Amino acid sequence: MKTYRIALLPGDGIGPEVVAEGVKVLSAAAATLDGVSFDLEEFAAGAEEFQRSGDPFPETTFEACRACDAILLGAMGLPHVRGPRGTEIAPQLDLRERLDLYAGLRPIHLFHPTHTPLKGYEAGGIDLLLVRENTEGAFWSREQKVDFAADVVDDQIHISRRATERVCRAAFHEASRRQSITRRGKVTLVDKSNVLPSMAFFRRVFDEVAAEFPAIETERVYVDAAALYLVRQPERFDVIVTENLFGDILSDLAAGLVGGMGMAPSGDIGESHAVFQPSHGSAPDIAGQGIANPVATILSVAMMLEWLGNETRPAAVLVRGAVERVLQSGENRTRDLGGELSSRQMGDLIVAEIGAEIGT
Ligand code: ATP
Fold first, then answer.
1. For residues 290 and 342, what is the distance between their CA atoms, to the nearest angstrom?
2. Is residue 117 part of a domain?
3. Of 53, 137, 310, 348, whose Cβ has the fewest other Cβ atoms within 10 Å?
4. Which domain holds residue 46?
5. 282 lines ligand 1 (CB under 6 A)
């Protein structure tokens, strides 16, 4: 029996609510696998933990996460809880940096035509993968000390050859993998190389990596135009690779095309570790009401099952298929999608669909 150890970091706001549904679905899907079990261990981290103990991410928690096979995270940070630099508490960023989770994979898929504010798109008509560089870029100086009495504060955009090469390679590998399914095989570089020298360097490295993948089509788009094209012609994109801050902003925009933050899963992937979490934050405006959409978290669970390996991959297919079938009915909608379902009801429907698929 192979046991996968999963660290659960539910975090703040709606984090615990959506992780509870993710765990329910994980358990239902895991029960269908032969010779595989999951050992889930929950840890406290985030803004509430910071308020409680003064330490948002205890070292023992980090070490425990590092020892696990994968990490499932809810959301961290609350707008009114700020650290000494005036920024929000964000242990999820520490995890990315300390475990070197350099590729932020954010799949965007339209499951039902009513989920998109755009006209004329069928289910599957919007389907792209945003690959965000996770370790540097404009987030580079986030730990710098700030003198609030100063007249000027500078942040630095840091682009290294090493980080750019590996994130671009990850994007091309994803495009090759998707090519076998969608037959497209295209990577779009999104940058600002018309203005910023660091971005001209990013593009140069992208071009070098692109030459290693002659079967994959490429295009290069400035970030401002990319924002326009995402809204006007999202079908133009297959895989997008971009810098950290651009990826942060564009992934929220892209999520908005398929129903909002509750529909956007993510995986932050390194060489040997990975964190899976919904792309959304702690959503304090709806926390505690049981109405958050758990689909992004449940799809993140599917990404985790896919990433863990061949033995768990059938469960990933099962979860994704169940989400797809549940959302096929326009009735099955949480509040953010214009429906009435609670987080728990949506989770239950997906669990029931898994049961129906395997005939229990
Ligand atoms: P962060 O910067 O930490 O990613 P944010 O400030 O971008 O967070 P979110 O917490 O992601 O903000 O919330 C943005 C909006 O999306 C809010 O109106 C919130 O209620 C909504 N939202 C986020 N997640 C969900 C969800 N799972 N279900 C329904 N609505 C959500």
1. 6
2. no
3. 310
4. 1-102+274-360
5. yes
Cα of 280 from ligand 1 centre, angstroms: 5
Which of 96, 142, 280, 342 most suits a substitution to test ligand 1, by most atoms within 8 Å of the C-beta?
280
Tell me, using a 6 A CB cutoff, whether residue 336 lines ligand 1.
yes
By CB atoms closer than 10 A (0-12, 13-18, 19+), residue 230 is buried
Q: In ligand 1, which atom is closest to the CA atom of 283?
A: 10
Ligand 1 atom at minimum distance from 90 CA: 3
Low-confidence ranges of the chain (pLDDT < 70): 360
Residues 237, 230: Cα–Cα separation, whole Å: 8
Does residue 149 fall inside a structural domain? no
Looking at the CA of residue 18, tell me the nearest atom of ligand 1: 27
**Dist CA 42 CA 61 (whole Å):** 10
Q: Where are the alpha helices (DSSP H) in 183-211?
A: 197-210
Q: Are 279 and 246 members of one domain? A: no
32: Cα within 13 Å, side-chain hemisphere? 21
Could you tell me the pTM of the whole model? 0.95
Q: Whose CA is nearest to atom 26 of ligand 1?
A: 262
Decide if 268 is inside a domain. Answer: no
Residue whose CB lies within 8 A of the most ligand 1 atoms, among 115, 244, 261, for a mutation test: 261
CATH number at residue 84: 3.40.718.10
8-state DSSP, 158: B
pLDDT for the residue numbered 182: 72
